[in-house]
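My current task is to audit a protein record that another person submitted. I have pasted the whole thing underneath without changing anything:
***
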Amino acid sequence: MKRLSYILFPILLLTGSFWSCKKALEQPPLGSLSETIIANKNGVNGLLVGAYAGLYGMQGGDQGFGGTDAWQASPSNWVFGAIAGGDASKGSDGSDQPAIDPIANFYSDGTNAFYNGKWKALYEGVFRTNNVLKFLGRATDIQAADHSNIEGQARFLRAHFYFELKKMWNMVPYTDETTTDFNQPNNTDIWPKIEADLKFAYENLPGTQSEIGRANKWAAGAYLAKAYLYQHKYAQAKAIFDVVIPQGTTTSGKKYALNEAFADNFTPSKEDNPEVVFAIQMAANADPNGPSKGNNGDMLNFPYGESPFGCCGFFQPSIDLVNHFRTNETTGLPYLTDYNSHPIKNDMNISGDQNFDPDQGTIDPRLDWTAGRRGVPYLDWGNYPGKPWIRSQLYGGPYGPKKNIFWQATQATDGDFSTWAPGSSINYLVIRFADVLLMAAECEAQVGSPDKAQEYVNLVRARAANPKSWVYKYIDDDNPLKGFSDEPAANYKVGAYPAGDFASKGKNYSLSAIYYERKIELAMEGHRFFDLVRWGIADQELNAYFSYQGKLTQDVSRGKFNAARNSYYPIPQRQIDLSQAGGAPVLKQNPGYN
């Protein structure tokens, strides 16, 4: 089921582009195949598979495209979206991967290698999609329907890569299949180009594809609506969500829907389900040189110390994030404005051999599928032991990541131990149906339909309230592989917003509830920083986070967000230096970083 993502990847190395010292957009192919081999249906389809492989951002051997560290190019945006958004501490300790610290605290500049690594990976994806379109235009043996399908998929992928570039850096250079001068300036807004690609894909792709992992009409529609949403074109986004939500279908004929169990989104054996709108298809043990197709970019993000994973202790859910999951014991609703006044008990500074009883208050069960928490089952690996699995609690806090962790019972197939840190076959969900519902809710609130917005939010909350989404205690704590009992692992309580709540309390309240729901539903999935920026509340939210979290863990003690400077990341200085023309750089640095 996951062959699509990697079967032709070695062949496509001949037509990809890699970097040494040249500008990412200028490096020519290492080799080439004759046009007679490529400019036909098989050749173009091979290039298209290579473009899908570009979603990984990896070239093998624990390296991102261009020879960067794999984690710099991760498609999950665990550094740029989750850590920078306050979902997680960097983890590990201050001496390991120190370049993440200035990103998390917002004092980095364009010389930080993480920016160059991400830039290279995304422009490699652009290069590959442009190659598909270039040779598609030269092929003569492709029927009209196949031509539209291939073009729609390539343009969908190109839009994805440019969407990532846009939300990272705002003003970026644009090239397409007709470009011959690759030293392009970054002085033009690329939103119209992204819209055009997604609109073509939405209008030309079929509703279903023959292979799992390929983009279809509904994925393109959801992504187009997301692009409109990012530009605050709420009515246009709503119009598309109104079509995608009821009519999108999967290959089984079912409408897109929320899984009954929240955890099914992160369990390989249950992936490619009705909740998946578009995912990067991961595969463990597909590359003997490392997990290049198995979440190589997230290989640092497993519990450390005495854990069975070996490495490396990064990406620890923040204390602030965990506190968001407290619910009111009467209503089951979250504390929208004062969640940190109702903190969830943790084991900070408590050793593994000291007794610790988990929090007994009411909690949203999504917490225990998002964060490893002392005394609560950690999938089937046993109760999370706390400090023995953490490199430094003082630096990163008491919690461990969980959505990216494979199960012990399936580690032979879902885990990848081919190199010094693990990989996994857990797909990265670029867009899932819960995300679509919450984006649609935002549009409804913005255009004046609070009841519809509340309906969408309550659908997401109802899934969390379903006992199938809860974590349960083990039958036998000494042998977790025996399975789970029928006793919940915590005091779970999730309530719906009462009828008319959004309408009676107004737009600002409605939006705050929607924003909060995105925070807890999509936590640790790489969205948070970009959400905060597009909502225009990054300064207040992140500076409040630094004020609270910075007193508890050392990793963000220097944190300070300035919206005028930090809403977008700095253009990689290496790319600016390599864009010289006529004695001056073609690329311009983002405001505040000169």
